[in-house]
Amino acid sequence: MKMTKKVMGASALSILVAGAAWAEGPVSWWYETATPAQQDVVARNIVQPFQAANAGTTLNIEYRGAGLDNQIRIALLSGSGPDIVYTGGPSYVAPMARAGQLLALDSYAESYGWNDSILPVFLEMGRYDGALYALPKTYETLGLYYNKTLFETHGWQVPTTLDDLETVADAMLAEGIIPFASGNALWRPTNEHYVTIALNAVAGPENVYKALTGEIPWTAEPFVAAITRLNDWWQKGYFGPNYFSISGEQQVSMLAAGQAGMMPSGTWQFQHIPTYFPQNNAEAGFVGFPSAADVGEPVFPLGVGSTFSIASASRNPDGAAAVIDFIFSEDTYEAMNAEWQGEWNMPLSDLSGVELPPDVLPLYTTAMQNLAQSVSEDEYGYTTWTFLPPATVTYLVSGIEEVWVGQQTVEQFLTQLDTTFRQERDEGKVPATPAR
Questions:
Q1: First to last CA, the chain
Q2: Strands 25-31 and 57-63
Q3: What is the pLDDT of residue 364?
Q4: How high is the pLDDT of residue 8?
């Protein structure tokens, strides 16, 4: 990526106006949680330029907070709600499409050129029963953040295998340092971040793919080994004593302050690195999460953090499509990633024209390049919130806690997970899994 910021020229603006002038009228969009500063970023880089380029169309965004997914489901059931349906990932899309609550986007994909401008694997993930119903707002991955300064102080090597990881974690415990900055205080589904890591790092993405496509059950031995190892980390204290009272942003604060040495988490955390590490005179590092010997190189699990669809009951579907197309442009990618990294990594097929300012964290750029390479080479892993159906995800989030606190065994957890998954698969609720 180039490292300077450009401004949309008058010719480009006039093309946008001419291409979308027919989409007049209000367009509503419910968004999740965003700070006042983040809302300002959206207003300056999406709302205002879109409205300037589309005279007669008003984009109205309502920030609904952590309860957005439930609010969307209730609204769609009653035939109300926003024009743009913003979900927490592909697992939400299939049930909505099956219920007739979403418009098929194939005609818009053809007219706007999305079939060429968006990476094919992500178009496949947005399909249900052969039709396109969703575009991913951002693609993401999980990896291992670490306090590079702390590692250098103690002479620790960045782990490249799971055995290395446990050796370093044990050394941290001996020093009174929490190995994993982690917690689910404000977002209970954080639990599935760690399940995702274990499934891919221990069982391996090939076995996860086989389970997703029904070739093997979730009770198979590789998954028993994965969840057992994850539970071992919990029981040894790697996740610290206050997991249930620590938020995502607090995790970064702990890591930067040296209270924790590592942080298994997602690329969305890059937005907090510049806030906490400089004030602690510390430097952050990020690598793929180490894998078991029989898995090989660290795996980057592929995740879609949120999706865009259009409600079948929308009063202005053309306007909604125009908004989505505006978001999936090089100019919007450039503007949003310049100010808000980790949440606006739209899967555009060509980023050669994107120019980011020099103050964008190089660590973020490198991580996105590594993920893009993994996707292009079909060497990615699978995040649970992207590839599992909704009831299976809901059970996973609560069920793994029961394993951690000793209320059920690993085998009981996987048996119920497999039962729930198979039921949803029979009901056609499993998101599309692109062939490897």
A1: 28
A2: parallel
A3: 84
A4: 38
Q: Please write the tens of the pLDDT for every residue from 105-156.
A: 999 999 999 999 998 889 998 998 899 999 999 889 999 999 999 999 999 9
Instruction: Provide the residue type at 43 as one letter.
Output: A
308 three-class SS: strand
Report the C-alpha gap between 307 and 295 in whole angstroms: 30
- Assess contact for 414 and 218: CB atoms under 8 A: yes
- Report yes or no: 299 and 204 within 8 Å, Cβ to Cβ: yes
pTM listed for this prediction: 0.82
pLDDT tens, position by position, 350-399: 877 888 888 788 888 888 878 878 887 888 999 999 999 989 999 999 99
SS3 279: helix
Q: Could you tell me the sign of the dihedral formed by the alpha carbons of 258, 260, 261, 267, in that order? A: negative
With a CB cutoff of 8 Å and minimum separation 6, the contacts of 43 are none
Residue in this structure with the two tokens 């020229």, named with its chain if needed? 9
Let me know the angle formed at the C-alpha of 264 by 279 and 188, rounded to the nearest 5 degrees: 100
Residue 341 is predicted with a pLDDT of 85
| Structure-block tokens of residue 19 | 């291409």
CA dist 383 → 6, 141, 208, 355, 433 (Å): 34, 8, 10, 29, 11
**Longest CA span, the chain:** 65
CA gap 303, 297 in Å, rounded: 18
Place of tokens 């907070």: 65
Residues 6 or more apart whose CB falls under 8 angstroms from that of 423 comprise: 391
Instruction: Provide the pLDDT confidence category of residue 23 given band limits of 50, 70 and 90.
Output: low
Percent of the chain with pLDDT over 70: 95
Residue 237 phi/psi, 5-degree rounding, is 95, 15
Ramachandran quadrant class, 303 (left: phi over 0; alpha: psi -120 to 50; beta: rest): beta
- Rounded CA gap, 425 and 389, in Å? 8
